[in-house]
Specification:
Layout: H1 4-14, E1 18-24, E2 36-41, E3 47-48, E4 53-55, E5 60-65, E6 73-74, E7 79-83, H2 87-90, E8 103-107, E9 124-128, E10 134-139, E11 150-152, E12 160-162, E13 183-189, E14 199-208, E15 214-223, E16 226-237, E17 242-250, E18 255-264, E19 275-282, E20 289-295, E21 305-310, E22 316-317, E23 321-324, E24 332-333, E25 338-339, E26 344-348, E27 364-366, E28 378-384, E29 389-395, E30 406-408, E31 421-423, E32 449-452, E33 455-456, E34 467-486, E35 491-509, E36 522-531, E37 537-546
Parallel strand pairs: 7-8, 26-27, 33-37
Antiparallel strand pairs: 1-2, 1-11, 2-7, 3-6, 4-5, 4-9, 5-8, 9-10, 11-12, 13-14, 14-17, 15-16, 15-18, 18-19, 20-21, 20-30, 21-26, 22-25, 23-24, 23-28, 28-29, 30-31, 32-34, 34-35, 34-36, 36-37
Length: about 550
């Protein structure tokens, strides 16, 4: 018989009827009265808490009746919240949390433990029955964030973690404990490459975090806040089991798309983990924006800027694009904004951009971190959010003409060909049509080669300053040579001296010879030689005139 007390103590520790379930030791409100300890009757019998006590590392506090409660009887499978004795008259922190049906008790002292529960080191909280037998204990982690509690996640095991909710869950089931039915949308795996013109498979992982088996579930998908489709999973998921569900998505639009997946099943008790929001970037088909103008060497009172143009024919979110120089990691992205077709958008270094006349202010974005452009040579990249180059230009050997921007002759022309760019007639035209704009004549369906205008006037007034050379062939790639001869048959320029190009294009010749001098007034011949990808060669020529 002399070993009976020890046997009772061991049995009590291994199979406690009343257990610790939650500790609030670092309140976001008043430390003096808002600490609490929660216990739970994990048995089918009523437990009288009279004579029970709690302790920290240094002091033991007796549990006594709370104001307004006539007894200390803890019902089976029920919670009890142990309050600081000063809480009743000094705080209402938990009045909207603790259910009215939950038993409250308080300590017979002015603070939990010796000086309140520590926020600077971990303490061990102990629970004693009326015979001073230790029935349960836990050492909390003092490093968790202020306002959260140390919660038990299992009634049968010593598993504890930070609460999922601020202020904890005094008097009801812990936020970290499994629910009876709890379907969790766990993760989403997107395709390695998003196909803008085909189907894309997204794999959704769902998990049963609850205690009961789930039979049948549905996953809904919305794209940009519009319902898209659903998939039913007819199988069963036991507790802690997972399933993978495939979703086939065809994107109607390019750019950043927001996908919201939502899982649902009957009697789901935890709805805060049923949805996941996922953003993907759908590459653009074609070129939605192109580079159209840049100021590399501003005069006093001006600033550097880069202009782009919506060439797509439909509204496009400018937030999907950014600008940078050859150091691509320094890209500066535009803010989200729908840009109308045929609109000019400018990113400027500072507000002196508004000194230009007639600037459309809503089409200007100020970015002080816009990469600085070198005056003599540099690269400009227009990047999409997926890191791909939407458009670019490399310039060098250009005149250092301070205070004049460099404009593209036509937004449709290739940006990479420096011959398609020209100094602005004036200072610059941010957000406005370019002063050097020229429209090529239609080449027609049967012709291969056309130049316009028939008379070029390279006098710097912005009217027909350049000769536009258009061509089209059936092959995918063409090896081109283009030479300009004067009326005497003398070669003066080689705009293309053997170059592989696309099968259809228009580019500009600035009417300057190979020495950089403007050609004299007179008649000229443009000779084009083309060889297709099958080796077939053709030679074409057209006459034109240069006047001053």
């Amino acid at each position: 018989m002399k070993y009976l007390p020890l046997i009772l103590i061991i049995f009590s520790l291994l199979h406690p009827k009343v257990i610790l379930t939650e500790i609030m030791f670092n309140t976001a409100s008043d430390e003096n009265q808002d600490e609490f300890i929660e216990i739970y009757n994990n048995s089918d019998s009523i437990v009288d808490l009279t004579g029970w006590a709690i302790a920290d590392n240094a002091e033991t506090d007796l549990l006594i009746k709370y104001h307004g409660f006539t007894d200390m009887l803890l019902k089976p499978y029920s919670y009890c919240v142990i309050m600081d004795s000063s809480y009743y008259l000094n705080s209402t922190e938990y009045e909207d949390l603790i259910p009215d049906s939950v038993l409250r008790v308080m300590i017979n002292d002015g603070s939990m433990g010796q000086y309140g529960l520590s926020n600077s080191y971990s303490e061990t909280i102990k629970l004693f029955d009326p015979d001073s037998v230790l029935t349960d204990s836990v050492t909390y982690d003092y490093t968790i964030a202020e306002g959260y509690t140390w919660e038990r996640s299992s009634y049968t095991e010593q598993l504890w973690q930070k609460s999922n909710v601020l202020r904890g869950t005094p008097g009801f089931k812990n936020s970290v404990m499994p629910l009876d039915t709890d379907l969790e949308l766990y993760s989403i795996v997107k395709p390695a490459i998003i196909d803008p013109a085909g189907n894309n498979i997204f794999t959704v992982k769902v998990r049963n975090k609850g205690l009961s088996t789930i039979s049948g579930l549905r996953i809904n998908l919305s794209v940009n806040e519009t319902f898209y489709n659903f998939v039913d999973y007819a199988g069963s998921l036991a507790s802690n089991d997972s399933a993978f569900v495939d979703f086939t998505v065809f994107f109607d639009n390019s750019g950043t798309q927001e996908l919201v997946f939502e899982a649902e099943t009957e009697n789901d008790s935890g709805l805060n983990n049923n949805s996941l929001t996922f953003s993907v970037f759908v590459p653009y088909i074609g070129r939605p924006f192109v580079l159209n103008e840049f100021m590399k060497n501003p005069a006093a009172g001006q600033c550097e800027y880069i202009e782009i143009y919506n060439i797509s024919g439909e509204p496009v979110n400018i937030g999907d694009f950014g600008l940078t120089d050859e150091i691509k990691s320094s890209a500066v992205f535009f803010p989200d904004s729908l840009i109308a077709p045929e609109s000019f958008i400018v990113m400027a270094k500072d507000t002196t951009i508004f000194t230009f006349p007639d600037v459309i202010r809503q089409n200007v974005f100020i970015a002080s971190n816009l990469p600085a452009l070198n005056n003599t040579y540099d690269k400009i990249f227009l990047l999409s959010k997926d890191g791909l180059t939407a458009d670019s230009i490399y310039y060098d050997d250009m005149d250092d003409d301070a205070g004049r921007s460099i404009e593209k002759i036509n937004p449709e022309f290739s940006s990479n060909d420096i011959s398609n760019w020209h100094y602005c007639v004036d200072a610059g035209t941010p957000t406005l049509p370019n002063t050097v704009y020229q429209e090529p004549e239609d080449i027609g369906n049967s012709a291969h080669f056309k130049i316009s205008p028939r008379t070029a006037t390279p006098n710097g007034d912005g009217e027909n300053d350049n000769l536009l050379i258009s061509y089209q062939f059936d092959s995918s790639y063409i090896y081109l040579t283009m030479k300009i001869y004067n009326i005497k048959g003398q070669l003066i320029s080689k705009p293309l001296n053997g170059d592989y190009r696309s099968s259809k294009d228009t580019f500009a010749w600035n009417c300057k010879d190979d020495n950089g001098m403007t050609a004299d007034t007179g008649a000229y011949i443009c000779l084009l030689k083309a060889k297709d990808d099958k080796g077939k060669a053709v030679e074409l020529k057209e006459a034109f005139y240069i006047a001053k």
